[in-house]
């Protein structure tokens, strides 16, 4: 079988340089281009790139994707900053190139994505649900975006299943003890030196608890998801938003 | 809405007496019969029972179910000892009573069932997978049946996804350190006074791990699953084997 | 060796009835009296009780202890509500009965006490420290008294070791996400149906974390500490406050 | 206050280069020499080094320490391969230089050392004790040396306290399920891609469990212990074996 011809755009960044190594190490892929700041996008067509992994910056991602889609190169995109307007422009390019696929994912960690999927599935079956996220001490926001999103998904699944909003049993206590309230789901944020990024989703009902925990120990955790995205995007024309759409959970 | 008319057969056992309390506490159910050893099954028809929760013994379960199915009473069955022959007999009764449903479940803990379902779903996405189960010191078998079953499901999902059998990296060590080998998935059994029944499924790949943990802290953990079974079995004619079939994981 | 002659005062309460069973089951003890409401304290002297386990109520504990100490009966006390004034009165009785010992402990769970001791010992060696406590949904206060006390002990140990007060790195977030602030140590309180009483103390520094976790799965968890107290109090005249004083941590 | 003048010997190794950065980042230390293979030891005296951090190889450590001790330079030693004979030679040099101190530590992770200390302290108070260690898939030995050592310390503490050897309750099961038997303490070894080095010590008794968990997420976890060793060794003449001797656990 011929190998998938892959390029990394943003190859000198922290995640980009991991992606270069990951593509090189994959048996079924060949790294045919690694573009940094100032390198010409023409290289992608000259090298016959099939999939471009885009890991640059909101300032450059649109130009890069316009070039890729126009030339029939599939995209796997980790760059953030997506707005309605940007998505509409991307979709118009894809409409004009109907065999090309683009995957945009806010999180390429398969473990983080599965944690959210499982949390949603479990939510309707437990009386109580809370989220604890734990990160390094350099993190400026609390709770994390992933934890907030997880809590929102849990709240929506509870509502859909007809479960009532959780009532806090606390009648006296210290401010903050019961965490942040995200649509009725308490979210607690721990900050410890030595940690990277971790999340625990806790469910409880009569006599039992279910805990789903994701630990990111190194930022290379995004690589399996990026490789999976590259393998699947070539058979998935149009825009796919979220890695969960490429996971088989049948 | 009229309440579901429920009976418990085996109402004096440890789980049966929990079930009596759970049905009584459920807003949408009415406990109309609680049968113990020697009580007549006729009570079920006299009281207009819709669902019978069968928590007795392999010696009596067949007689009880024959009566229920023949009289159009749905069954939720926790009694064990099912063989091909027994299932065939039960199916023949159900064939003759095509609107009646019976749910048999080896495990009515929703948390335990979800742990197995999620483990199966996650298995194909991680290079490594192991199972740790932890139980009280009165447990005579190791590993637990649930842990063995979970490991088998993981091994099957890996094989289906084309993942290789896990190789043990250990070249020197003490016998037993790497656990029991269940189809290539190591299973470790901890026995501690103070515990009841707990299981952890661990997955790992580049830079991240995913852990699914189920803790049973009290044997009342089977009640939400029994109630769910009773609610769903009335709309599910025929035989259903395994509570997972009644969980919506869409 | 002759067995220790033990009485339980408050034998009909939830913890008291556990204590009756625990003393009966102990090889080195004999349960010689089990007093309930209205029973005469004279039984204690008539039966030659050496140690009385006092598990009643703040309304009755002073009268019970006055009788015990005056008659040279050692006490192991789980009843709460101790004030400076009450302790002074108890000490005056002990002064008059110099061979008699009384142990008062706010928590007889050895695991909970060790968690606090270890947290104090570890605190000076880690840049970061936080506490997560997890309880059943019937708990009205948050955080738990044990978690608050643990955080205070950590804060005191940090200060003694010259560590700075922890700065929260959060610059934007949701109110409550970072927990309650107890002397600079964040404390997070989770409330889940199915849980009983659990606490996790987390420490972090460069490249590593240390977690000390205590799980109470049943209220019988106080029994080993009560028995230990009874064995040790007979050789420890005067007042001892806190089970940690009877633990050998050399 | 004048800064401690520190050298790193073996400065180009993986741990050595971390140590260089850690000493440079410490407010109370000055890195005055960083020696690699072939560099002259004379630099240590020329630069007025007070403490040498020795992170080389069993082939070179003796020569390096002989030079240091003879010249009154204190040593903090992470190199392994210590035998009775080697320790005797080192002690003879120290006898001739009575103000000089050397710390040798098999493990400079404060979290790992505290885990062992706490495990020893707790062991006598719980009926059951087991160890689970979890490492990356490159690890060739199972269980880890640290886990084996921890289990031996637990077994010794149990014996000293008069606790019986743990009996395995298992009557039928799969080989290996109950782990490796280290002096009656079961030790289980998990190997997952994505992990680095982790250990959990589990204790159980009536109604409760206590868990002490250490997670090494990066090999920089040895740095706080190395810095602590350097600060303390200057006031501790003679040989100290084990970082635990420099921890204040009063």
From TrEMBL, chains A, B, C, D:
Residues bound to NAD(+): 10-15, 78-80, 105-108
Catalytic reaction(s) noted: (S)-2,3,4,5-tetrahydrodipicolinate + NADP(+) + H2O = (2S,4S)-4-hydroxy-2,3,4,5-tetrahydrodipicolinate + NADPH + H(+); (S)-2,3,4,5-tetrahydrodipicolinate + NAD(+) + H2O = (2S,4S)-4-hydroxy-2,3,4,5-tetrahydrodipicolinate + NADH + H(+)
Gene3D superfamilies per the UniProt record, alphabetical: Dihydrodipicolinate Reductase, domain 2, NAD(P)-binding Rossmann-like Domain
Enzyme class: oxidoreductase
Function, in words: Catalyzes the conversion of 4-hydroxy-tetrahydrodipicolinate (HTPA) to tetrahydrodipicolinate.
Main location: cytoplasm
Dihydrodipicolinate reductase C-terminal domain boundaries: 111-247
Protein name, entry field: 4-hydroxy-tetrahydrodipicolinate reductase
Assembly information from the UniProt record: Homotetramer.
Annotated metabolic or biological route of this protein: Amino-acid biosynthesis; L-lysine biosynthesis via DAP pathway; (S)-tetrahydrodipicolinate from L-aspartate: step 4/4
Family: Belongs to the DapB family.
PANTHER family: 4-HYDROXY-TETRAHYDRODIPICOLINATE REDUCTASE 1, CHLOROPLASTIC-RELATED (PTHR20836:SF0), DIHYDRODIPICOLINATE REDUCTASE (PTHR20836)
Organism: Streptomyces stramineus
Keyword field contains Oxidoreductase: yes
Active site (catalytic residues): 135, 139
CDD domains: DHDPR_N (cd02274)
Origin: domain of life: Bacteria
Documented EC number(s): 1.17.1.8
Residue span(s) of domain Dihydrodipicolinate reductase N-terminal: 5-108
Subcellular location(s) per record: Cytoplasm
